[in-house]
Write a structure and sequence with these properties.
The structure holds three protein chains of three kinds.
Chain A: E1 5-16, E2 19-30, E3 34-38, H1 45-52, E4 60-65, E5 68-70, H2 75-80, E6 83-86, H3 98-102, H4 117-131, H5 146-159, E7 164-168, H6 176-191, E8 195-199, H7 203-209, E9 212-217, E10 220-226, H8 232-240, H9 242-253, E11 264-273, E12 277-285, E13 289-294, H10 300-307, E14 315-320, E15 323-325, H11 330-335, E16 338-341, H12 345-349, H13 356-361, E17 369-370, E18 373-374, H14 376-390, H15 406-418, E19 424-428, H16 436-451, E20 455-459, H17 463-469, E21 472-477, E22 480-486, H18 492-500
Parallel strand pairs in A: 3-8, 3-9, 6-7, 7-8, 13-20, 13-21, 16-19, 19-20
Antiparallel strand pairs in A: 1-2, 1-4, 4-5, 9-10, 11-12, 11-14, 14-15, 17-18, 21-22
Helix pairs in contact in A: 8-9, 9-16, 14-15, 15-16
Chain B: H1 2-8, H2 12-28, H3 35-60, H4 68-85, H5 90-114, H6 119-137, H7 139-142, H8 154-157, E1 162-163, H9 165-168, E2 180-181, H10 182-200, H11 202-212, H12 214-219, H13 224-250, H14 261-271, H15 284-303, H16 307-332
Antiparallel strand pairs in B: 1-2
Helix pairs in contact in B: 2-15, 3-10, 3-13, 3-14, 3-15, 4-5, 4-6, 4-13, 5-6, 5-13, 10-11, 11-13, 14-15
Chain C: H1 2-30, H2 35-39, H3 42-46, E1 51-57, H4 62-76, E2 81-87, H5 92-104, E3 109-112, H6 121-129, E4 133-137, E5 147-150, H7 153-167, E6 172-178, H8 184-200, E7 204-211, H9 216-229, E8 233-238, H10 241-254, E9 261-266, H11 269-276, E10 282-285, H12 288-304, E11 316-319, E12 323-326
Parallel strand pairs in C: 1-2, 1-3, 3-4, 4-5, 5-11, 6-7, 6-8, 8-9, 9-10
Antiparallel strand pairs in C: 10-12
Helix pairs in contact in C: 1-12, 4-12, 5-6, 7-8, 9-10
Classes of the chains: A alpha/beta, B mainly alpha, C alpha/beta.
Organism (chain C): Aliiroseovarius halocynthiae
Keywords (chain C): Signal
Subcellular location (chain C): Cell envelope
Chain lengths: 505, 333, 339
């Protein structure tokens, strides 16, 4: 029944020693509705999710499913009661097929206790038809696009008879059109009287999809109510506090400097890679932020890899420091003052099991070496400098990076390149999975680098981000530059139209 | 103050366990707390500690070197052939042996990097390959009478000397101090060298980064392929040094030398807190791990515990070490 | 010519060992009753500790297990010895380390099955300096020590060749399933066989000598390969019983068992049963329990008779008696003698 309360927490608090992670949180997930949780990292969202999924026992308060109190915190029990969670990072097994993943751990048994593939297939097909989700059951998950993988996770939840589906940052790796596909799927879930919890840093999405919104800040519920009762500035203020809210708005309206100082730092001429991208011609100047906008899959990252010497173009040239260059390796690009902050900080950017200190010094080993011996003092200074200037939290050089929040990880990643004092800094999706507060800080850092004379290239699929920081925008589609805008003269709609070729407008 | 020092010592738990175990044997194992026994442990496990230190390098680069036992035999046979067949002076034989071992290690690295083989598979192949080479070059096969001829070269024999270090400091006036074997002195030199290499040069950080996240290290401009090869070269190099110590102690080399050594070395490294997931490691850990294995084996032997129980206990200690590490890291999350 | 000197030397050794052997036999028979054992020795003087003896084996295997049992029988009967079986883990360095440990612990006698003759020599030398007797089993060491008790590898293999040749009627082709090189007993068992064939049955040719790594499975593969290239092979000699039994498996599977003459070496229980079943033709049988008892008896004499290791100016060697077990005589080997 629509309107039935499927799951609620009543006055739930969670303490870890003296630290209060969550204070008196009461939320209700209603059948047929989407409730959004918003808040900065550390606001208590993860703790709340963990209480709901049974990973943490609340220190006080209670959790109720369909009105009945659940006395034990047990993930398996909560799953059995119909609560499923889809995490930001895929929990699918990439080497198994879709159907194997969907039924993993809950295989349907036939005679002799053997897996009945036929029955599984029939049930999966029924569910796919009911919800209008269509995935080939036999392909390997690793071959699917990110949005299809999310759909597989949703299917997995549905097969497990989940009524309450939590989605933690579901769109972190999705492009604009994929986000809208996902939202369509969520609408189908609510139409079937499922309750959905939607957790996202992207406020546009929250306003688009959610019926109710709960704002968490410092472990307390700052506000909760219907989406229609709150507007964006109020939400940001409630979420990050007045001061940061101001800063984040100021960032949007700051001065634009297309073409910066006019000194070309890096340029390409008809750069092409057979079958990937072709005739990419552009230049980036000192003191400007050039954004590569486009859909995911428009081959921007591939172009950037060639600029950084991580891949080789098949034709065309790269001009750096006044000459034509071919970079055989990242090391050569770095020697020419070009640095890349890669897209996926987990697999390409950071050594997660290492500390802030170690991660920071890795690209700059040469600078801190004197006659073959590392200068501990210089390294300490370098690390402290970045922690202070980037406001990395916790400010502990010995903190293991894997245990830090996404925003702070990203700052560590930025810091290690800033130490190289790059002439050209390329950032690939710099704020994926980063909360609003940290985003504003990262934008401020990028601007500061620009003001100090660096040429900055930002690859971003986040429209808000492009509109916020770009001085100039190049729109990519299918490996080609289709349009160029000066940031001051472009509107949201114009840009969406250019990116999507009309489809998402 | 004390907690600050403790925080800087990465192997605190292991050191405590080591001390407890040693004290236990001092009280309960007859003749354990004697100067001679200390000498026995030092001389019997110094070379294993060196092999374990070598094994640490590939593990830090998120790999493994299964071929070190065969490399050790190869280096041993080079010493044997050089002295007995070619009648070269011992110091030349030693240099040749260490060079051969380093080359064998480098080849491992090249196979892994150039052919993109998994380290486990590549070194499993060379484990067999190098062992075959040992048989092929064995002076014992070519000249059977050499099989019963001991190596008596003076520069080789130096590695089997003992020094009364206690007397240098006048300690022997108070207690019977163990004489320190040359092989332990070699181990100390190796430890200092590796400490400087890992903690004080860019190479150490680069190696840890390569093991921690190879992709990130490469994109940070590090030459990860070279670094990977170097890790295997180091493993070979140290196996070569260990081979010299062992051959000096045995006064011969055999074709079967070092069989199963890779497992002992991996065990020592793991007990010493080297994570098999790569990216971490320090000089003290594998050395403590190796001597720990020695203390346990000798202590239990002196207590008269049966050999099968000894093996079970060694396995249990290995599990405990790995489990302790996992629990400690779990608590840190 | 070398032939002559070798057999001369062997004969001399053999005589010496006979002497030692009879001394041992006498001692072991009498020793338990001697008042000497109850009153003398460091054991009593210490007041608490028994004398310690230990056997450092190569690695766990039927042969050292049987030795250990034989040793225990003799030592346990006397109640003044602590005996311990130690595992060399097939590693020279482990054996050396165990030697050092036992020396430090003041063992009175160490039984040793050395992995290598030279590598253990320094350890044996340092044991001697501390007055500890070392008795080696099967594999001798280059350092002179108290005693060496050995299966008669060379002469036994020679005898195998003689009997095998007779069974084959003096003609035919033979393949050897061999162990990996580098071990003395492998060479003795091979050389004895090869030289025996040349001496007694010049009409028989040895056409293949392949490495089957002591293993039954490896021997199966190896013999299949040999038969493919040498279809006329009718005789197989396994340097140990496992490899000979591997050859039996192949012959049975190919249905040619009745045309084959297959000999092993060692005389372990499985081999004797196979002979009784009419499959394996024969093997060299040594009573290894007895070998252990001989070693232990010698040790008892040394530990209780006031004889120090340093008193041994030259080493005694005891070669074990053996029989070539075939269908005709295998029934004579008692259950208690099988291992």
């Amino acid at each position: 029944m629509s309107g039935e309360i499927l799951l609620e927490t009543r006055e739930v608090s969670k303490r870890f020693g003296n630290f209060v992670a969550l204070k008196s949180a009461s939320i209700a997930v209603t059948a047929g509705k989407v409730i959004g949780f918003v808040g900065s990292n550390g606001a208590g969202k993860s703790t709340l999710i963990k209480v709901i999924t049974g990973a943490h026992a609340p220190s006080s308060g209670s959790v109720h499913v369909r009105g009945k109190e659940v006395h034990k915190a047990d993930p398996a029990l909560m799953r059995a009661l119909g609560v499923a969670c889809i995490y930001q990072h895929s929990s699918l097994v990439a080497t198994l097929s879709v159907i194997e993943n969907v039924f993993l751990g809950r295989e349907m048994r036939g005679r002799l206790g053997l897996v009945s593939h036929k029955a599984q297939r029939v049930q999966l097909q029924e569910i796919m038809d009911d919800f209008g989700i269509h995935v080939d059951p036999d392909v390997l998950v690793s071959t699917l696009t990110p949005v299809k993988q999310k759909e597989v996770e949703i299917l997995k939840a549905l097969v497990a008879n989940a009524d309450v589906i939590l989605m933690d940052e579901p769109t972190a790796w999705l492009s604009l059109s994929e986000v809208s596909n996902l939202h369509t799927t969520i609408r189908k879930l609510t139409a079937a009287n499922k309750g959905v919890v939607y957790i996202s840093h992207v406020l546009d999405e929250v306003f688009q999809i959610c019926d109710d919104i709960t704002i968490l800040r410092d472990g307390t519920m700052a506000w909760t109510g219907p989406e229609a009762d709150i507007d964006r500035p109020k939400l940001v203020n409630l979420m990050v506090g007045e001061a940061l809210g101001e800063a984040s708005r100021a960032a949007v309206t700051s001065e634009r400097r297309p073409r910066g100082t006019g000194t070309v730092k890096l340029a390409t001429d008809k750069l092409s890679k057979q079958g990937v991208f072709h005739d990419v011609t552009f230049e980036v100047n000192a003191g400007e932020i050039l954004c590569f906008a486009g859909l995911i899959g428009s081959r921007r990252s591939e172009v950037v890899k060639c600029l950084f010497g991580d891949d080789k173009p098949t034709s065309g040239t790269i001009i750096s420091k006044g000459g034509v260059k071919t970079f055989g390796s990242p090391a050569e690009a770095i020697a020419n003052g070009i640095c890349l902050v890669p897209e996926d900080r987990h697999t390409e950017g950071l050594c997660l099991s290492h500390t802030t200190f170690e991660n920071t010094v890795i690209p700059s080993l040469v600078e801190v070496t004197n006659r073959g011996v590392l200068m501990r003092k210089d390294m300490d200074a370098m690390c402290t400098r970045q922690i202070t200037s980037l406001n990395i939290l916790p400010p502990d050089p010995a903190k293991v990076v894997g245990q830090m929040s996404g925003g702070n990880q990203q700052k560590v990643l930025l810091g290690k390149w800033i130490e190289k004092d790059p002439e050209v800094l390329i950032l690939d999706e710099p704020t994926v999975g980063v909360d609003v507060g940290a985003k504003a800080e990262i934008y401020a850092i990028i601007r500061k680098l620009r003001d100090e004379g660096a040429a900055v290239i930002v690859v971003s699929s986040d429209l808000e981000e492009v509109m916020t920081i770009a001085d100039r925008i190049l729109v990519f589609s299918n490996g080609e530059i289709t349009t160029e805008f000066d940031a001051g003269e472009v509107t949201n709609d114009l840009l969406i139209h250019a990116i999507g070729g009309g489809e998402s407008a | 103050m004390i907690s600050k020092i403790a925080a800087r010592v990465p192997n605190g738990g292991l050191i405590a366990f080591f001390v407890v175990m040693t004290l236990f044997f001092c009280f309960f194992a007859r003749n354990f707390a004697t100067a001679t026994n200390v000498e026995n442990i030092l001389v019997g496990y110094s070379f294993i500690a060196i092999v374990a230190l070598g094994q640490m390098f590939p593990i830090m680069a998120r790999g493994i070197d299964l071929s070190i036992g065969s490399i050790l035999a190869l280096a041993g046979m080079v010493v044997f052939d050089a002295i007995l067949i070619f009648e070269l002076p011992g110091w030349i034989a030693i240099i040749l042996a260490i060079a051969a071992a380093t080359l064998a290690g480098t080849l491992n690295g090249l196979f892994i990097v150039i052919l993109s083989l998994q380290p486990f598979v590549a070194t499993l192949a060379t484990l067999a390959g190098y062992r075959g080479l040992v048989y092929a070059i064995s002076g014992r096969q070519l000249y059977p009478e050499l099989a019963t001829t001991p190596l008596r070269d003076p520069s080789l024999a130096w590695f089997n000397e003992y020094y009364d270090v206690g007397a240098w400091f006048g300690l022997d006036a108070f207690i019977t101090t163990p004489w320190i074997p040359a092989s332990f002195l070699v181990l100390l030199v190796v430890m200092v060298f590796l400490y400087v290499l890992l903690a004080k040069t860019p190479y150490g950080t680069a190696l840890k980064a390569t093991g921690g996240n190879k992709e990130a290290a490469r994109l940070a401009g590090l030459r990860v392929r070279m670094i990977e090869v170097s890790a295997y070269a180091m493993s070979g190099f140290l196996a070569g040094i260990a081979a010299v110590l062992l051959v000096a102690r045995l006064t011969t080399s055999t074709e079967a030398l070092g069989i199963g050594m890779e497992l002992t070395a991996i065990a020592a490294a793991v007990i010493g807190g080297t994570r098999l997931l790569g990216g971490q490691g320090n000089v003290l850990g594998p050395v403590l791990g190796a001597f720990f294995l020695g203390v346990v084996l000798i202590g239990l032997t002196l207590m008269g515990i049966s050999q099968f129980v000894q093996q079970m206990l060694t396995g249990a200690i290995l599990l405990a070490a790995v489990g302790y590490d996992a629990i400690r890291r779990g608590a840190g999350q | 010519m070398t032939e002559d000197t070798k057999s001369d030397e062997s004969r001399r050794h053999f005589l010496k060992s006979m002497a030692l052997g009879s001394a041992v036999m006498g001692a072991s028979a009498v020793a338990p009753g001697l008042p000497l054992t109850k009153t003398s020795g460091a054991a009593k003087a210490d007041g608490h500790a028994k004398q310690k003896m230990a056997f450092i084996q190569w690695q766990p295997h039927t042969v050292p297990n049987a030795w250990s049992k034989g040793i225990e029988e003799v030592l346990n009967a006397q109640e003044i010895f602590d005996y311990q079986l130690l595992d060399g883990q097939n590693k020279v360095e482990v054996q050396v380390s165990l030697m050092d440990t036992l020396i430090n612990d003041g063992a009175s006698v160490i039984f040793l099955q050395p992995i290598d003759s030279v590598a253990l020599a320094p350890s044996i030398a340092s044991a001697k300096r501390r007055g500890i007797s070392v008795i080696t089993l099967n594999i001798d060491a280059t350092e002179e020590h108290a005693a060496h008790v050995e299966m008669n590898h060379y002469f036994g293999a020679k005898e195998i060749a003689r009997v095998m040749g007779e069974k084959m009627g003096g003609t035919g082709e033979v393949a050897i399933m061999n162990a990996p090189p580098g071990i003395i007993i492998r060479d003795q068992r091979t050389n004895g066989f090869v030289e025996g064939m040349a001496e007694y049955h010049p009409g028989i040719s040895i056409v293949a000598d392949v490495n089957a790594e002591w293993s039954r499975q490896k021997a199966q593969d190896a013999l299949n390969t040999v038969l493919a290239s040498n279809p006329n092979v009718t005789g197989v000699y396994g340097v140990n019983d496992s490899m000979a039994l591997g050859a039996v498996d192949v012959a049975k599977q190919k249905g040619i068992l009745d045309q084959m003459t297959i000999f092993g070496n060692d005389g372990e229980r499985d081999a004797l049963e196979s002979i009784e079943a009419g499959e394996l033709t024969g093997t060299q049988y040594t009573d290894v329990y007895q070998q252990g008892r001989f070693a232990a008896s010698a040790a008892t004499v040394m530990a209780t008779g006031g004889i120090s290791a340093r008193d041994f100016q030259s080493q005694g060697t005891l070669l074990m008696p053996y029989i070539i077990a075939t269908a005709e005589n295998v029934g004579g080997i008692q259950e208690a003698q099988r291992w």
